[in-house]
């Protein structure tokens, strides 16, 4: 559907390319997220696909047609790609129906009745029934964004590009629209590329997510695989917001501030110092006057509590636990976990993850100060 081969975009004067040797294949009907921190190149990559930027190296194909390379650049209006922006970009002097019809009118061959029919179709798809005579200022933010989406879908593009489409909305609306966005795009059967810096949004809306860092795609995978098998420490940290515990090599095990961890594979090719990943939901806390960590902050998350902890060495940990367990700020706690859930990451961010020993012989580390 969309294919990027070794795409590079370098802005004059920049130390690193904004987009650096990116390879991506998008399948028909697939929703792909571009996720990463500010400045990692997400928007530039989207603009390359849209045709607002031209690559210095690499090639971009849309449905087997080459649309961009260092010597070729099909103009945006001839790519048949729909765009949805963060700020909706609706025409304030046009009604909802006129806004949606706008893109269709640019296309040749639409008869008046067919055009009206198509406007009604996409309005229904985007749950905008009854709003056709309203002006943008008479709509809520969520409704405006659905109009922008309907307008982009109206000409039936093969691909829709969405640049942070939910980031101007308040939290409640954003959460609801996430699901609606996915439903609308899936019903339309359109492929889409969605730029976001919000990992929850990317994981909940998209079929696959490309995690970007410094212009490169660090990992591209399904939300579940990104969460379960992050390829690098950066992906693990950005996507799962996990804890990382420094560990030093012993002969067949790893020494940490908390105790000794045994791995299924000793990791002979690993450096002597690594970071062990523990997800927030994997830590178990128990009130213990001899415990290694102190509760520094507590956040009520509705279904669970989120505790910020600090250990004696100053290491900060975050744990999410059931509501039934209430600890107070200042409480000293023992921290334990199942060694099976530990993943090992190189500190230099090079890919390699070793899962801790799954055998019952591996002693459960009790993370208490000794
Ligand atoms: N027109 C430009 N001229 C020069 N440098 C640019 C230009 N556009 C982007 N950059 C640089 O390219 C890099 C990637 O920018 P880009 O906007 O693609 O990042 P992003 O991941 O979308 O960030 P954000 O989430 O903050 O929008 C940044 O270092 C940025 O400063």
TrEMBL record:
Class in the EC hierarchy, top level: translocase
Membrane topology according to the record: Peripheral membrane protein
Subcellular location: Cell inner membrane
GO MF annotations in UniProt: ABC-type quaternary ammonium compound transporting activity; ATP binding; ATP hydrolysis activity
Membrane-spanning segments: none
SMART domains: AAA (SM00382)
GO CC list: ATP-binding cassette (ABC) transporter complex
Gene3D superfamilies: 2.40.50.100, P-loop containing nucleotide triphosphate hydrolases (3.40.50.300)
Keywords: ATP-binding, Nucleotide-binding, Transport
Coiled coil: none
Pfam families the UniProt entry points to: ABC_tran (PF00005), TOBE_2 (PF08402)
Protein name: ABC-type quaternary amine transporter
Biological source species: Prochlorothrix hollandica PCC 9006 = CALU 1027
Taxonomy of the source species: Bacteria, Bacillati, Cyanobacteriota, Cyanophyceae, Prochlorotrichales
């Amino acid at each position: 559907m969309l294919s990027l081969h070794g795409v590079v975009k370098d802005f004059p004067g920049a130390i690193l390319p904004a987009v650096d040797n990116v390879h991506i294949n998008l399948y028909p009907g697939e929703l792909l997220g571009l996720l990463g921190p500010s400045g990692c190149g997400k928007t530039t990559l989207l603009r390359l696909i849209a045709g607002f930027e031209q690559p210095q190296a690499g090639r971009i194909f849309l449905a087997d047609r080459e649309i961009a390379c260092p010597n070729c650049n099909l103009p945006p209006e001839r790519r048949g790609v729909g765009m949805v922006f963060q700020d909706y970009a609706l025409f304030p002097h046009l009604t909802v129906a006129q806004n949606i019809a706008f893109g269709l009118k640019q296309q040749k061959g639409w008869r008046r009745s067919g055009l009206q029919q198509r406007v009604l179709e996409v309005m229904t798809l985007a749950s905008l029934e009854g709003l056709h005579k309203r002006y943008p200022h008479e709509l809520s933010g969520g409704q405006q964004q659905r109009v922008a989406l309907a307008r982009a879908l109206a000409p039936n593009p093969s691909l829709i590009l969405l640049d942070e489409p939910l980031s101007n909305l308040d939290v409640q609306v954003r959460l609801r629209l996430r699901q609606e966005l996915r439903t609308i795009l899936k019903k339309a059967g359109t492929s889409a590329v969605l730029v976001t810096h919000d990992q929850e949004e990317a994981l909940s809306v998209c079929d696959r997510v490309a995690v970007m860092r410094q212009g490169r795609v660090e990992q591209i995978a399904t939300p579940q695989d990104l969460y379960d098998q992050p390829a690098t420490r950066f992906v693990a940290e950005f996507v799962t917001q996990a804890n990382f515990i420094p560990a030093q090599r012993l002969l067949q095990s790893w020494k940490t501030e908390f105790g000794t961890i045994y791995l299924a594979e000793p990791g002979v090719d690993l450096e002597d110092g690594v970071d062990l990943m523990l997800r927030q939901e994997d830590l178990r806390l128990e009130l213990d006057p001899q415990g290694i960590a102190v509760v520094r902050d507590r956040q009520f998350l509705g279904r669970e509590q989120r505790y910020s902890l600090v250990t004696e060495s100053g290491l900060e940990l975050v744990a999410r636990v059931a509501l039934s367990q209430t600890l107070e700020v200042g409480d000293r706690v023992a921290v334990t976990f199942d060694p099976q859930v530990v993943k090992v990451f190189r500190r230099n961010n090079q890919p390699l993850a070793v899962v801790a020993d799954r055998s019952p012989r591996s002693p459960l580390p009790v993370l208490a100060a000794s």
